[in-house]
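Example record for the data management plan.
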Amino acid sequence: MVSLFRYFRDYLKESILGPLFKLLEALFELIVPLVIAYIVDSIIPHGNQGDLVAMVLLLVGLASVGVAVAITAQYYSAKAAVGYTKSLSQDLYQKVLSLPKSSQDRLSTSSLLTRLSSDCLQIQTGINSFLRLFLRAPIVVFGAMLMAFSISPRLSIIFLIMVAILLVIVVLVSVFSARIFVQMRKSVDKLVSMVRENVLGARVIRAFGQKDREIQAFKKENQSYLNRQVKAGAWSASLAPLTYLVVNLSLIILIYQGKMAIHSNLLEQGQLIALINYLLQILIELVKMVMVMMTMNQTFISAKRVQEIFEQESEDIEADLPIERTNQASLLLEAEDVCFTYPESANLALDQLNFSVHAGNIFGIIGGTGSGKSSLVNLLLRLYPVSAGRLTLYVEGKSPNNLKAWRQQFALVPQKAQLFKGDVRSNLSLGLTNISDQEMWQALDIAQARDFLEAKEGLDSPVEAMGRNFSGGQRQRLTIARALLQPAPILILDDATSALDYLTESRLLEAIQTRLPDKTLIIVSQRIKSLRAAQQILVLDQGRQVGLGRHDELLISCPVYQEIAKSQEGQEVVE
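Corresponding structural encoding:
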């Protein structure tokens, strides 16, 4: 388990100097009421102008030094807080990337985004406030109480009672507000999730006329968040007036008792002024402490959420896998009674799959929506472990010894083409080194992407985030070219040609088979025409294997395949 305190190691000096300078500032402030008391009791009655000027200059000097010390303390505190959060965010991002797919699904993308951004920022704010005030506020409060005790032990009891009452109020409010802050963070996760879904699915929402429904759903969740904010704000806002109420009542009692003590010659006027100043200093610091407590309340909640990610088990791609062997030289993939259930799901996503893939062949996967095609691709890449059965990959007759070696055998073109901001060259060379421009153009040529890139700026053509400045078909061809550059023997096209016309798709598949004859193709497609040349086609229906064979064989033996063929080509079902 990663301790969040370890990130202070690189900023230990700043974490110590910041509070120390704040401590110095507090000590200077505690001297000011004593100087004022001396002026009132000893200088003004005697009319000593020289001593008065000296004391005024002393006050100005204390104020100047206090300002310089305060700025220095703020600098070191901010440096420590920002540096801490920088290191924390970097490690947190690496941790998120190392999480297995099941953990990412369980935590949800929106929650991970919130923890990486909003929660880390809250931690930074909390650390900055803590370093600036965790020494200053207590020192001023207890220092002022000690100074008051040195002036009048009897009247200092008022200070003790006041601080005790305020501590009880702060603790009670913090306990009640903490629960609300936890609910607020969850509401933020939900709002981020809704916004993300609506942005990514904007075209679908508009196409189906669901704009008003999504707006109402967002308003409902936003109103829920608002109600929690108002409730938390009410608790937080109650602290300041309660603090002022207790302190001002104490001030009234102090003035009254001080007046009685002056009449009894037990106290000087300047000493009463000093006591009032100390009381007001305590008021200011207690208000600051209240604000810090509320900030720290939220910071602890954010820290727990961040710590939860660090406590997740990372995916160890170097961990040893059981070694299996085969005597069939051409055998590449083998599935025996493979079953799979998603985490926290009661239903099987895949049930009793049996097939084998040989090197250099084309293996097709087809089925309706929700039939389990993408789930099977996830299993092939070992993004999830199989729930039952055996799925084996062979490299030269032996299975890979770890996940890293397993995944290096695959190049994936996902359903949704994913491009990154930069240029075409940086997108094609993703994860690769020493790739020449000539190799890139060869891959683009096979992927049928040369024509539209030559019309732009070639490999230097800019790419916006998610490839927004390219059409759907162009994005798919660029991602196919990127996969072709990977030195992997198996290429998975996960419905990667859905945006291409039949002619372009046919040229693409023909170019891959002709120019890369050793490449094993696993094609997931809704189009039967894309799979005609496959040596084997796996037909899925609701996670079950309902057919396995060549195109002509399935037209005779598999009713599901017959229905797909009939819907796409208008051919009659073979009885």
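Summary line stored alongside the record: The chain has two domains: 7-310, 319-409+524-575.
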